[in-house]
Amino acid sequence: MRMYDVIQKKRDGLELSDQEIEFVVEGYVKGDVPDYQVAALLMAVYFQGMTPQELKTLTLAMMRSGDTVDLSNFGDATVDKHSTGGVGDKTTLIVAPIVAALGGTVAKMSGRGLGHTGGTVDKLEAIPGYETEMSREAFMEQVREIGIAVVGQSGRLAPADKKIYALRDVTATVESVPLIASSIMSKKLGSGAKSIVLDVKVGSGAFMKTKEDAERLARAMVDIGTLSGRRVTAVLTNMDIPLGKAVGNALEVLEAVEVLSGRGPADLVQVCSELSARMLCLSRGWAYEESLEKVNTALRDGAALYKFREWIARQGGDTFFIESPEKLGVAPVQVEFKAEEEGYIRFMDAELIGKAAAVLGAGREKAGDAIDPVAGLVLRSKTGDACRKGGTLAVLHTSNKEKIPDAVAFLRRAISISPEKPHEQPLIYGVVG
Ligand code: URA
Questions:
Q1: pTM of whole model > 0.70?
Q2: CATH for 339
Q3: Active site (annotated) includes residue 183
Q4: What are the pLDDT digits (tens) for 222-237?
């Protein structure tokens, strides 16, 4: 087989065979196929797309390039969740214990944040003592005993994706639905859960800026999962506005506890309830309405919070902050960000708000940068809310007061105020699968 012929076939819009795709992925990982030929193929895929069969084969080949987790001992109740990335997205901290409290099995690997989006592992590391690394045996034992464990993503998960992603990043081929879908799903399938719920974010703070693009990505990922024998549902959710009010690691952990205690911002509660219900439909076989009702009960009667406490303690985390939030640390510098005019918040650019939190210390510019766990911001008002001149729109938290002017500059660009109240935006755009 010649790489030249594979590139030519895709360039001309023909379907690649399973053997051709496996030849490319295996050859690239081994170093037999050079970067420039894979780059040419990626560009051909960018323009010609991929069929569902091609996508499935590409995804499985990338998955098989590394370690995979075998969760088959846990039967059909294993369920994972993946978010395509957003601002203020602390849903894993909430949905994982809800679902585990209701009999789902959550054996999960999560990632770190990069750029303006946060990562679950960084949030969990804001909890003193929490271990994001554990041996495979300890991970399995914990899942068997309490139905939940969340660790950092293994470096050996889908190494072909890592190599291809790095190439996409420098060849203008990141923004391709088949390439994003196969990249995400190679890691999700490798993580082993029978059921997967995908939270596909739409809007200014998300990869996919329009509903149509998000729908295409959701459909591609659902097809890959289904063709690979998994149960998959994708929920399209709004990321034009940050989710909840807190953006920043410790701040988001505290907001998650609020929700698990039956309180918390309504938008965050709604998205978490939807995701949890979808996870339960797939993993427990319950109807949607029944699942949603059980989720609401678990939030009200303390079952979800009980499971959260059990999970955090089991992974070494100190749970004292659940009763005394200040024990998670308090930023030494807290500055109010005020409205310059009166009116309604017409628009919030979630990406710029994420960048404001990141410069305060909540995020990293490049992999390996240190995080300030107490840094971030808390929004007092969100899109559609009325504000008065001089009223506080957000409170900035940081350990380094020199970061405040940069964060304020981002917020000034992020928040626009107008005299008219804007139309309400949907929080959940739809469900695929
Ligand atoms: N996240 C991934 O894991 N891969 C992509 O290609 C895009 C987002």
A1: yes
A2: 3.90.1170.30
A3: yes
A4: 999 999 999 999 999 9
Q: Which two tokens stand for residue 378?
A: 């808390």
219/253 same-domain check: yes
Q: Which atom of ligand 1 is nearest to the CA of 174?
A: 6
The total domain count for the chain is 3
CA distance 386 to 254: 26
User: Which is the catalytic residue, given 116, 187, 245, 284?
Assistant: 187
- Quick check: is 40 in a domain? yes
Q: Identify the three-state secondary structure at position 376.
A: strand
421 is catalytic: no
Q: What is residue 206's predicted lDDT score, i.e. its pLDDT?
A: 85
Nearest to 99 by CA among 143, 65, 139: 143
Query: At residue 118, does pLDDT exceed 80?
Result: no
Question: Atom 2 in ligand 1: which residue has the minimum CA distance?
Answer: 184
| 343 and 402 share one domain | yes
Which residues 6+ apart lie within 8 Å of 85 measured at CB?
A: 117, 201, 206, 207
* Domain carrying residue 39: 3-49
Last residue of a domain, one of 279, 301, 322: 322
